[in-house]
């Protein structure tokens, strides 16, 4: 018939009154004079059980294909067990096959209705649960290649250094570039005349003070927290530390405030600082700057 | 056998290549100054198809647009970002942990779990409580795989595919957790118009004034349409040298769609959707 459809393993019948869904001689509504089905009653997918014993008088055959429910429909009870009994009662002298299949179909319908009700309660929102979030584009290693090309660490470092240069960090970091260069120059000149150098250094100090007064203060604030006289001693003896290193280390200490334990040198209060400068001018260990 | 022969052939090729290189180098040295300049190797970035929507830094139109778009109040420092992080229904352990870590990375963010509330209903509530952004982490099979970033009072919604998520414990590093300081933000390589707007979306997640004391930096780096997120702590060892240490989770994003309004997949007006067949035609064409 035209309602026949088949797949590899099964032959299906698309007739809406077919009891099992398969196209068999025994299940085809068109091929049987007596036929009965169980269907869902409309109205909210609520109740299974418009149940039509068909055909008793076989008007069915006169209206092939159109398949009107010719015979009385019986609404089955909502109670599962009672409904099964009703099927049995109504189809009491009907062939076993039809009775059995009707009951099976009824069971199936009730089960899927239960499932539907549960699912609607679960508020499953298919909008967001997107399954197809798989992988990337055409090339499966696209992302990895992009990652390698990105060279993230270098890029980040470069960006940070640029920001440092453009002074976005203000005065937090103690890299006094100009002072550094000047110090270099002066240290070279120093070898000629110490006194000159001292004067220059003092000048330089002043300049540095001007430039980096806030830095010093910032650092000072920290220093005031911790002062080890032992360290002082060490520092005085190890007067190799140059200005830059001093300042740098202070800067670095400011960074490590609370992060790592403070190591080694440089907890100097301001008055001692100045002393240190003078000492530094004496020994010719300025090569360290290079 | 054949495999062996193939290996041998490959070795030979390599030797020939090396020999060629050496010869070229010798020639260059011999010529000295007159040698032709070194050839620049072609990379995908070099060969990138020129995108007409690339933003010129001096472009007035773009500047005007940005002054009047949805992020203007943020960039004018009128609003402080407040972010709600949530997931799809029933998140699994990994997603939950990822959400927590994300919340520590982004200051002023709160994680709320969703017990089946529709996003459309959440959004008005969020707006009422002054949230500026909404992040939804979508999960599939126990791993986070998607991210919806929605700027709240009616702002654009971006939908990303998320991959390669690493939680903090999976990253090889010895740092501690991110502190409460406001991190700096680095946005790299967002060149086109579309990229620009996405970049602003990301920037709007973080408060405007980073605390440099914290020395933390969040990076969104776009490369070939993949956005890599990293979170580092940096130290300036000297003027020219900086050290970075990775803390914080990491993930990569790929933009799927950008919608004009807040999250609405049926009636929303899409500014940009990634259409696979149409847009992936050339290997050298990127959109962000």
TrEMBL record, chain A:
Residue ranges the record marks as coiled coil: none
Q: Does the keyword Nucleus apply?
A: yes
InterPro entries, per the entry: Mak16, Ribosomal_eL28/Mak16
Query: Which N-terminal stretch is annotated as signal sequence?
Result: none
Instruction: Output compositional bias ranges, type Acidic residues.
Output: 189-212, 220-231
Q: Where is this region: Disordered?
A: 183-290
Q: Where is the major localization of this protein?
A: nucleus
Ranges of residues in domain Ribosomal eL28/Mak16: 8-43
Q: Which GO terms describe its biological process?
A: maturation of 5.8S rRNA; maturation of LSU-rRNA
Per UniProt, the keywords (alphabetical) are:
Nucleus
- Its GO CC terms? nucleolus; preribosome, large subunit precursor
Q: Where is the composition biased (Basic residues)?
A: 252-270
Q: Where is the protein localized?
A: Nucleus
* Family the UniProt entry places it in: Belongs to the MAK16 family.
Q: Identify this protein by name.
A: MAK16 protein
State the species of origin: Thryothorus ludovicianus
UniProtKB/TrEMBL annotation, chain B:
> Record keywords: Ion transport included?
no
Subcellular localization, per the record?
Nucleus, Nucleolus
Source taxon at top rank: Eukaryota
The family database entries (SUPFAM superfamilies) matched by this protein are listed as: Class II aaRS ABD-related
Q: Which GO terms describe its biological process?
A: maturation of 5.8S rRNA; maturation of LSU-rRNA
Sequence segments annotated as region (Disordered): 15-42
The record's listing under SMART domains reads: Brix
Q: GO MF terms on file?
A: rRNA primary transcript binding
Record-level GO cellular component terms: nucleolus; preribosome, large subunit precursor
Q: Where is the composition biased (Basic and acidic residues)?
A: 27-36
Cited PROSITE patterns: BRIX
The UniProt entry, under Pfam families, shows: Brix
Q: Which residues are in the Brix domain? A: 81-264
Any keyword rRNA processing?
yes
The alphabetical list of record keywords is: Ribosome biogenesis, rRNA processing
Which InterPro entries does the record associate with it? Brix (IPR007109), IMP4/RPF1 (IPR044281)
| Main localisation | nucleus
As for what it does, the entry says: May be required for ribosome biogenesis.
Write down what this protein is called.
Ribosome production factor 1
Its gene is Rpf1
